[in-house]
Structures are given as structure tokens and as C-alpha cells.
Design a protein that fits this description.
With about 110 residues, the chain is mostly helical. The chain contains seven helices and no strands.
Length: about 110
């Protein structure tokens, strides 16, 4: 019994894409809680070091926990995918893991 999903189900899965355990907004809230940087600042174009690091942490968490591609994260944030790629590579893996632990403890 291999039943194909309906076209609407395929669309809904893509639109509401959450491949991992968290959605990007949940991770954003965890970054806000952990860093004290507002969501508006994280989503802004600010070049302030603290804000940029919070933004990069959010992108790395979305990449790791939601399994979004670099272009998807870039589109979501209004930046080129190569900017996301470079930023995500700068965030230590243990920092991303710690953020996931914070999300898990807040659930």
C-alpha cells in the first residue's frame, strides 16, 4: 500500500517546512532569550558585532535543526546564500548544540 500524498499535502509540507525538531521562529526566540538581542535587531541589517553574532547563531541553528539550505536561510533573511554559508561556518558546533539544549529545556 504505497499511497502517494495529495498535491495539497505536498504543498503544505513544503510551505510549513520543518524537517528537524524546531521551527526557525522557535530558534529565534531561543537566540533572543540567550543573547538579549531583540528579534527585530537580529532580522535587521545592523553590523553591530553583538547583533551580527546573534544573527549568525540563528542562521547556524536553522541550518542544523531545521535542515534549511543556505539559499532558503538567505531568502528568509534577505541576504545572499554565500553570506549565510560564511556565517554558519564561523559558529562553533558546541554553541549551536547549546542553543538546542536551551530550546529543549524551554519546551
Amino acid at each position: 500500500d504505497n499511497i502517494s500524498p495529495t498535491p495539497q499535502a505536498v504543498i503544505n509540507k513544503w510551505v510549513n517546512r520543518i524537517d528537524g525538531d524546531y521551527d526557525p521562529e522557535e530558534l529565534l526566540r531561543a537566540v533572543v532569550h540567550s543573547t538579549g538581542v531583540t528579534a527585530a535587531n537580529i532580522k535587521s541589517r545592523s553590523r553591530n558585532r553583538t547583533i551580527v553574532r546573534a544573527r549568525h547563531l540563528w542562521w547556524a541553528a536553522v541550518r542544523h535543526y531545521c535542515r534549511f539550505s543556505y539559499p532558503e536561510i538567505g531568502y528568509m533573511s534577505g541576504v545572499d546564500h554565500t553570506s549565510v554559508l560564511v556565517a554558519v561556518r564561523k559558529v562553533p558546533k558546541e554553541v549551536v548544540t547549546a542553543l538546542g539544549d536551551i530550546c529543549a529545556s524551554r519546551s
